[in-house]
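Q: A reviewer asked whether we had any structural model of the full assembly, not just the individual parts. We don't, so I'm hoping you can provide one. Inputs are below.
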Amino acid sequence: MLRSRYEAVIVGGGHNGLVAAAYLARAGRRVLVLERLGHVGGLAVSARAFPGVDARLSRYSYLVSLLPSKVVADLGLRIALRRRRYASYTPVGGTGLLVDNGDAARTAASFARVTGGDRELEAWRRFYAMTADVAERVAPTLLEPLAGRAAMRDLVGAEAWRDLFERPVGEVVDERFADDTVRGVVLTDALIGTFADPSDPGLLANRCLLYHVIGDGTGDWNVPVGGMGAVSGALADAARAAGAEILTGAEVLAVDPSGEVAFRDADGEHAVTGERILANVPPAVLARLLGGDEPAPEGAQLKVNMVLSRLPRLRDPGVDPSAAFGGTFHINEGRDQLARAYAEAAAGRIPSLPPAEVYCHSLTDPSILGPELRAAGAHTMTLFGLHMPARLFREDPAGSREAALRATLASMNAVLAEPVEDCLLRTPDGAPCLEARTPVDLETEAGLPGGHIFHRDLSWPYGEPGRWGVETGLERVLLCGAGARRGGGVSGIPGHNAAMALLTA
Ligand SMILES: Cc1cc2nc3c(=O)[nH]c(=O)nc-3n(C[C@H](O)[C@H](O)[C@H](O)COP(=O)(O)OP(=O)(O)OC[C@H]3O[C@@H](n4cnc5c(N)ncnc54)[C@H](O)[C@@H]3O)c2cc1C
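A: Here is a predicted structure for the entire assembly that you could use as a starting point for your response.
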């Protein structure tokens, strides 16, 4: 039985809404979560995407970096995040650049082979020593009230402030590195889910890079054991165990600044009142629920989920495919290739050689595959394509999705020794195990305005001192999702911060 009044009504049951619910319920607050879909988790879910195939794929997000250990400990979450042995592999002609977390000598030899000396490796070590230092300093602040700009500058020090917060990352990478492949590998972290020119003085790519290197004080991107659904499942369990009520199949229709929330479920339309409303939905959706309007942001990725009957063969005989696909496998993501793809997409064309990256979750965590698939040597493969802005897919969503997919697979095949299509597992009725999602698909299917994976462009992790970065200008309404300051990604940070804003008010 629903009550008519709650201390907090949370609009949306994505992982951040669940984090907020868990913290608030543990503090003794009466909390109701209203989720439109029949399940919680939002963009952090697992799905059996192919009928008759026993593989639980992380359908949207797939790696975890930004979720603080403190949140895991505070909420007693039973989740395991596994470090990947290999950070990345980038094919270059008949060889490739392997970054092996477990073998520094092998990494050094790979740099020497691909870049012709040790200068690039030295530059790489210096750059990532700088980001590691920033990670250690900045990550703990993400769960505290905002620091001001000057305090953040003092915290990170002069060099990191200049190279990460002030100068366009494209300029910094060009200055620090000479090799096109190495430059590209560094730049991809600045472009994930972000349609930007890294040389742009607006520094959008810098903000994206920052959140990709500071997660939990290390910047490591880890594999959630059991898939993303296991993370959201653990959060939902924690919230329910603490007493939060979670209603799925409940679509919020309107939010009133006074605290009234109108929603519809299978039984009809209802209203509840919250002393506070926490919006897990993107800011553009919140604006609509409040009766206003806010332009949609623009997402820029092609996501492809696959199940393979076996790993594809590589051109490089020196690297085992299980090493190459165990980390992030970069496809045509050299600095110049990234720049060309950006220019083509900005001019309204699908990039001729789309940059993309893939990785195989099942190499680090086979538990997402059923025993038969595991025994047969099957693997999941996730592809994240860059520079595929929503504008390319508006006019002809299905036709342009097909064209983008074709171009992306061709781009991938150009760096493999055999076409990936030959390795796709088939469902019992013969269909290849492959699904592709454009930003426009995400808008339709997941209700994401513009298909923007971070709800809106990422913002700097500093602001008005003392605020939590979740404020909306309306006293009773807070953001608790990715669109808050310091939100974006699977982090729980804005969920935590919205709960703290409420509890410390
Ligand atoms: C393809 C893709 C790949 C990604 N990869 C990664 C990755 O590997 N690692 C990473 O850290 N991040 C990744 N991200 C980003 C990350 O998934 C998101 O930023 C994050 O999950 C957002 O979480 P959230 O809880 O803030 O919002 P969401 O997960 O978007 O949850 C919002 C919830 O609100 C619900 N909702 C919407 N409207 C209403 C309404 N009217 N009434 C009720 N409920 C409503 C939605 O159904 C949803 O459940 C990826 C995202 C995508 C799309």
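A: Points you may want to mention in the reply: Residues 119-138 form the longest helix (20 residues). The CA atoms of residues 87 and 327 lie 5 Å apart.
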